[in-house]
Amino acid sequence: xxxxxxxxxxxxxxxxxxxxxxxxxxxxxxxxxxxxxxxxxxxxxxxxxxxxxxxxxxxxxxxxxxxxxxxxxxxxxxxxxxxxxxxxxxxxxxxxxxxxxxxxxxxxxxxxxxxxxxxxxxxxxxxxxxxxxxxxxxxxxxxxxxxxxxxxxxxxx
Length: 157
Fold this sequence. Notes:
single chain; CATH 3.30.1330.50; five-stranded mixed β-sheet
């Protein structure tokens, strides 16, 4: 078995929506990012890549590469899932925590889990999405941005 962790943060900026876990959520702000800025998927990709000792998302999808400008992060996750399979592993489970004051995540968690499970090629029961606020502390508490933390357990397929 192998364990990986991932962390991603993005600042809020102009816009009228955010994308989290592959779900477009109406919001008073957008995300400042080269791709769609999906913090949940970016953290999950880093967790998978870390478990495989294959670097991080920035090495596989560098922000300096214009191919990835505005990219759908689900493409990144499908790539990481392919690497997981190529290296002889299957997902044991994935646990993702999203930290923000807004938007509220709970009503979207089921759709996020379904998207991630589809892209990972696994049962939805292996994917957990949780959300919390930071009690008005730090950049997330001040509404300046959003963060996500992910851990994965990979097992031999």
